[in-house]
Amino acid sequence: MSLKVEQATTAFTFKGGMLPMTVMELSTSDPERIGAQLAGKLSQAPAFFQHTPVVLSVEKLDDTALALERLCAVCRSHRLLPVAVRGGGEGIKQSAWALGLGWFPPQEIRETRPLTTVDETSAGIDETGSGRIHRGTVRSGQQVSAPGGDLVIIGAVNAGAEVLAAGSVHVYGPLRGRALAGIHGDRQAGIFCRELHAELLSVAGTYKRLEDVDRALLGTPVQIGLKEDQLAIEALV
Amino acid sequence: MARIIVVTSGKGGVGKTTSAAAISTGLALKGNRTVVIDFDVGLRNLDLIMGCERRVVYDLVNVIQGEAGLNQALIRDKRTENLHILPASQTRDKEALTLEGVEQVLEKLSEDYDYIVCDSPAGIERGAQLAMYFADEAIVVTNPEVSSVRDSDRILGLLASRTRRAEQGQDPVVERLLITRYNPDRVDSGDMLNLDDIQEILAIKLIGLIPESEAVLRASNSGVPVTHDEQSDAGQAYLDTVDRLLGEEKPLRFHQFEKKGFLSRIFGGGRR
Ligand SMILES: Nc1ncnc2c1ncn2[C@@H]1O[C@H](COP(=O)(O)OP(=O)(O)OP(=O)(O)O)[C@@H](O)[C@H]1O
Ligand SMILES: [Mg+2]
């Protein structure tokens, strides 16, 4: 039994969501070498290779020498499921699309962490074409997103809540939960809040946890943005 | 038409059942026809706190499944006029409750009572959502600790989206904060969150503050809701809460650290 009294009248709804996603950063375009390494990994950690979705990052590679189709075949034969490609030029983008894969713009920063997050369903989809204003407290377990622009929250974002936007996130109140700006890769996006207590801050995939934040800034009004590939948190004056 | 009040919290063991019993007793003492329903199917203990466990014959599940009439299941409170208890089943599981069944029971009770108080089970799952679904008002019971505040916040999110009022676009459920087991000494020493912090995070109106009190333990052991212990701090705090629910202004009490007097230090008494 569902607690919904009214039957849903729409066939679906778009929901912004952040999913952990493995990025496979290629340092060679040679399918043989990739296949050999995968075979080794597969025997070490078979549990990981359960048609696990991966994003192929080709940012370190020389564009022209890349046989994307063969690469995908090698991955699939080792039970990895390529779902998108990150980086590369126009040619790579077109062949990714032709193969039914998504494409993400290159991320100039070299992340040392193997995990990044990718917007679940609304990547690249501009639903509203504009921003969104939310009035009231965003509570634990709630998620408010603006997949097509800036997000303005007039109220608090509590611990356990998540706010995300393709553009910037503005919180006119305490920010205690997670805030993600530039979820489609906009590196110009920023996060602004009246009182910083955030559990997680992310701009275009570069993130900081509460632990990493200078304690002197906690509880103060701040602006957050990318500066030379680092998340910079500055007093908002 | 009765006002339907759900007593809920998310986190378990924070004092929902104690509060549901004390508040429904207080409402009845003030002359309101009141029924208190135990939604905690499988873990019933409202009947214990109300001291009527030996008089339970039928329960909410029996009524919903058509095995008993509502009047057969309702237990009249021995101490307080105008007060009835609708117990939960100890033996059935939560799946025995249906939304339609609950709606019918509440509709029928609405004809005969002024207040229907629903004692919610802990958690945010189906049982808790059923208890809150038809509510007009919610009393969100919170202890002065981080995990309890977080869970209350979560429940407030559900109240704003998973209730009949929310789904049908009516006026929202009236949300009220009840802080229980407040211990000013431990708040002062930083072991517990203070009143202002809790209120700032949850951002809803405070309806009452119940101190940590031995009177509550005495009350539940003897099966007499603490509201009847008018001398006790907790009893008075619940009576204040009821007055505020009924629209009266009452100053907040029991939230400040009281220096223990010489005698009570010697005799180890202090608050009772
Ligand atoms: N103000 C208080 N002072 C001291 N003890 C209290 C107070 N309020 C509740 N308690 C005690 O806390 C325990 C849990 O209370 P209660 O059963 O009312 O919580 P609950 O939220 O209904 O729990 P559950 O989630 O299991 O249904 C009981 O032992 C009760 O006596
Ligand atoms: Mg209980």
Automatic annotation (TrEMBL), chain A:
Gene3D superfamilies: 2.160.20.70, 3.30.70.260. Transmembrane segments: none annotated. The keyword Cell division applies. Residues 12-82 form the Septum formation inhibitor MinC N-terminal domain. InterPro entries: CAP/MinC_C, MinC, MinC_C_sf, MinC_N, Septum_form_inhib_MinC_C. Residues 134-234 form the Septum formation inhibitor MinC C-terminal domain. Signal peptide: none annotated. Keywords: Cell cycle, Cell division, Septation. Coiled coil: none annotated. The keyword Cell cycle applies. Cell division inhibitor that blocks the formation of polar Z ring septums. Rapidly oscillates between the poles of the cell to destabilize FtsZ filaments that have formed before they mature into polar Z rings. Prevents FtsZ polymerization. HAMAP family: MinC. Interacts with MinD and FtsZ. NCBIfam families: minC. Belongs to the MinC family. This is Probable septum site-determining protein MinC. The lineage of its organism: Bacteria, Pseudomonadati, Pseudomonadota, Gammaproteobacteria, Oceanospirillales.
Automatic annotation (TrEMBL), chain B:
It holds the Pfam family AAA_31. Keywords: ATP-binding, Cell cycle, Cell division, Nucleotide-binding, Septation. Residues 3-150 form the AAA domain. Gene3D superfamilies: P-loop containing nucleotide triphosphate hydrolases (3.40.50.300). Signal peptide: none annotated. It comes from the Bacteria. PANTHER family: SEPTUM SITE-DETERMINING PROTEIN MIND HOMOLOG, CHLOROPLASTIC (PTHR43384:SF6), SEPTUM SITE-DETERMINING PROTEIN MIND HOMOLOG, CHLOROPLASTIC-RELATED (PTHR43384). Interacts with MinC and FtsZ. ATPase required for the correct placement of the division site. Cell division inhibitors MinC and MinD act in concert to form an inhibitor capable of blocking formation of the polar Z ring septums. Rapidly oscillates between the poles of the cell to destabilize FtsZ filaments that have formed before they mature into polar Z rings. Belongs to the ParA family. MinD subfamily. This is Septum site-determining protein MinD. It comes from Kushneria aurantia. The gene is minD.
